[in-house]
């Protein structure tokens, strides 16, 4: 992942930086359907100074990953316990809740139609992704890595990009997690849970892409 610049699109930033999506929502910046707009242009359309928005994003970037251990082995353990296990637990809760909300509110114009199906697809792909990390990539890293590690790292990065597209679909289906005034408790709980899940997944991918993977890419190149 590259650094945040005014030329980078808001869609890419939202998919890569934990907290950026919420920041954009707060400023009324569309990063889903309008996500191909450069940050500078999006800021100006929202009536913001581009450099001011960039500073807010830089602050988020500085805070990202602060709770992650610095050493490689504890970092891997942290990824498994803090993110892999949490994703599994939360998706197991969110999918039936999404199915319930879609069923009960199927006639509502703001109903998140297709959300459960998207979450099921993401769950299947994410489970496969995490198993490959736990059974193949992380053990290679725990043994110190090798030149062969570049291939699974590249595959994991590609899968991260695919998972980010699922998050964009969730953002679109839920209208940016916008609840109607009459939303019931289940609908509210669903969107609260989804906000946390998406922020967690973005943070998870960022730690791997910007902290863990580069350590072994550099080693493989030597």
From TrEMBL:
It is found in: Cytoplasm. InterPro entries: Hemerythrin-like, RIC_family, ScdA-like_N_sf. Keywords: Cytoplasm, Iron, Metal-binding. Residues 76-215 form the Hemerythrin-like domain. Pfam families: Hemerythrin, ScdA_N. One of its GO terms (molecular function) is metal ion binding. GO terms for cellular component: cytoplasm. NCBIfam families: FeS_repair_RIC. This is Regulator of cell morphogenesis and NO signaling. It comes from Rhizobium giardinii.
């Amino acid at each position: 992942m590259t650094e945040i610049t005014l030329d980078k699109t808001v869609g890419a930033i939202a998919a890569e930086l934990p907290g950026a999506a919420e920041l954009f929502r707060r400023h009324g910046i569309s990063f889903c359907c309008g996500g191909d707009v450069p940050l500078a242009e999006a800021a100006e359309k929202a009536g913001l100074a581009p450099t001011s928005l960039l500073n807010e994003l830089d602050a988020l970037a500085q805070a990202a990953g602060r709770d992650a251990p610095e050493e490689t082995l504890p970092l891997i353990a942290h990824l498994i316990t803090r993110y892999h296990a949490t994703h599994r637990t939360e998706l197991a809760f969110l999918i039936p809740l999404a199915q319930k909300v879609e069923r009960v509110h199927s006639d509502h114009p703001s109903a998140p139609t297709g959300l459960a199906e998207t979450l099921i697809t993401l769950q299947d792909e994410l489970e496969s992704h995490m198993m490959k990390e736990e059974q193949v990539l992380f053990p290679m890293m725990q043994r110190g890595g090798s030149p062969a590690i570049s291939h699974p790292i590249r595959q994991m990065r590609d899968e991260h990009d695919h998972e980010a597209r699922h998050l964009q679909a969730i953002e679109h289906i839920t209208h940016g997690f916008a609840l109607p005034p009459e939303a019931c408790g289940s609908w509210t709980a669903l969107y609260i849970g989804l906000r946390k899940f998406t922020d967690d997944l973005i943070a998870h991918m960022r730690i791997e892409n910007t902290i863990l993977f580069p350590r072994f890419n550099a080693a493989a190149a030597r």
